[in-house]
Amino acid sequence: MKIVKIIAIVLLVAFVGIQFMPTTRNQSDSVPSTDFMLVNNVPENIQKKLQVSCYDCHSNNTQYPWYNKVQPVAWFLEDHIKEGKAELNFNEWDSLSNRRKKSKLRSIIKQIESDEMPLYSYTLIHKDASFSEAEKQELIRWIEQLKDSI
Amino acid sequence: MKNLKMSIATMLLLAVSFTNAQEKEKMKMDHSKMDHSKMMNMNSDTKAEAILNDYFNLKDALVADDTKKAAQEGSKLAASLKAFDASKYTAEEQKELADIIEDATEHAEHIAKSDMGHQREHFKTLSKDMSDLIAITGTKNTLYEQFCPMYDGGSSWLSSSDQVRNPYYGSKMLKCGKVKKTIN
């Protein structure tokens, strides 16, 4: 029993301790002029869908719910965002060449089509981030159009 | 008491290894930046041929339905792409080449860490990049641009042989496709 107590205390201390370890917050006040929404003529419903479902990990600004400020959750999130932004950052869209834009759009379509994005671990908590079948088709159709216009 | 000490020690070790891992990652990134600046010196024609060669090996792995081999060839191709030297080309060509290389590198890197389905998706765009690359650099060998009308609304690839071996379907539809264009 004593051991259990000690372990519990140690875990608690560790848990409190890791709260002080630094994480980088993905937050920015300004939207750069290269942003996807600013350079493309995006219909409002598509805009909203992209904002809610994609921008948390694929832009310079994440909407953090409270539990994402608690370690070790924050670490996992930090990692996801880092990876997400490396793959695609909607804020820097217009800095890409046409070739890169087409490539990215193609990948976006494939990811949505195969339900790989948004991530399951993300939609589990962010219910409003998941796509219905109709929304999926609408989004894909619109992105296809954009791709063909480049 | 002994137990408490052990537990604390374990926690500390964990914490230390964690920070260590983060440091290592930082170092790795610095390293790749360094490699980037010092690698350009050889003749670019041979470098373009090396890229093509890796691309063909990747294609053969996809034809053979070999995910693991394709992943390895993807890494090799990414390395060859990064080693490309565009300095002897005109400013305009350099810009275009840098764009192609950047795009192709990303596809090669994804192929290095994906399953077969994804590898083939990326291979499609990669093939377009390769065609555009040799349109600028040229190549000393005769190449065949081949085309499969079934995969993803129609998809092309390059081959050094006029025999069609389909990298998008592998054994499922090995000979589906035709030669669309002969290069050189």
TrEMBL record, chain B:
<keyword id="KW-0732">Signal</keyword>
<feature type="signal peptide">
    <location>
        <begin position="1"/>
        <end position="21"/>
    </location>
</feature>
<dbReference type="Pfam" id="PF11827">
    <property type="entry name" value="DUF3347"/>
</dbReference>
<protein>
    <submittedName>
        <fullName>DUF3347 domain-containing protein</fullName>
    </submittedName>
</protein>
<dbReference type="InterPro" id="IPR021782">
    <property type="entry name" value="DUF3347"/>
</dbReference>
<feature type="domain" description="DUF3347">
    <location>
        <begin position="51"/>
        <end position="141"/>
    </location>
</feature>
